[in-house]
Amino acid sequence: MTLLIAFAAAAAVAAAAGAAPAPPSVAGMTLAVADVPGAKLVSQGKVAAGGYVSAYQRTLRFTSPYGRSEIVGVQSEGKLAGTAKQVTTDLGVVQRVLNSKAGRAGFVAGVAGKLRVKASAIKLSALRHPRVGDGTVELPIRIQLGTATAYESLLYMRLDRVLEQLLVVGARPIGQADSVALARILQAHIAQQLTPLDVTPPAIAGTAAVGQTLTASPGTWSNADVELTYQWQRCDAAGANCADIAGATSTTYAIVATDAGSTFEVVETATDRFGAPTASSAATAVVPVPLPPPPASP
Description:
- By secondary structure, the chain is an alpha+beta fold.
- The protein has three helices and 16 strands.
- It has helices at about 85-100, 100-115, 175-195; strands at about 40-50, 50-65, 70-80, 120-125, 135-145, 150-160, 160-170, 200, 205, 215, 220, 225-235, 245, 250-255, 265-270, 280.
- The strands form four sheets. A seven-stranded antiparallel β-sheet has the order 1-2-3-7-6-5-4, sandwiched between helices. Strands 13-12-15-16 form a four-stranded antiparallel β-sheet, with no helix packed on it. The protein has a three-stranded antiparallel β-sheet with strand order 9-10-14, with no helix packed on it.
- The longest helix is centred in the middle third of the chain and has 19 residues, at about 175-195.
- The termini are far apart.
- The relative contact order is 0.14.
């Protein structure tokens, strides 16, 4: 017996237009058919906000590969917020609602209404805290349907700027290990999407001449929540054979006499919890060799 239920989003999404120059794919953060052998796609959809997709829902049906033979339904819904702090706030709201008497009663009433059963047929367990994501919570649910019983596991996983809702439904009790195994797959999808991507490289401002100072202008990255660091490199006159300049890791570099005949690049590293890719600027003009001083007058 398979039961698929569409729940309304429990977390608000705050995504301002232009918050990221190239937003991650929210669809890529949800479970895919290829993630589980024999899975079939039941439905999928998206929600647009701020000029890009902020939420994506995908529902699958498959035979559980985690030690059981029953048919289960999985609904996965990824949400992208403007900041990691916003997602932490959203997850806190979810926990407060699911831990409160009024919130749980409202949740039960909503599920009962969708299934057209009495609220007394629905039993909620205490929230669990699986070791996936940041502050992840899981709510086990049991629903009595006449002589049959359906089991659900509703899991909210917070990872950086993403709140992922995972609903697993089946005809037998769904173990926490099963939910965590699916959450690990989601975690990998989210990490892949939130690794920074170079949108535009850094640039160098200033005159390439002895005694002048060059300044690095930051590039743009797909993830706005990154830490930028710099490394200046000295290159040959053709802008090739570049090598790091020891200690030159600030946003500026002062050109000295020994730099004459060289060009420069700056390498920008964008670091977040998922990776630390780099992007290089274009090379500067060649630093002219200073003219020798005129001979002294006789």
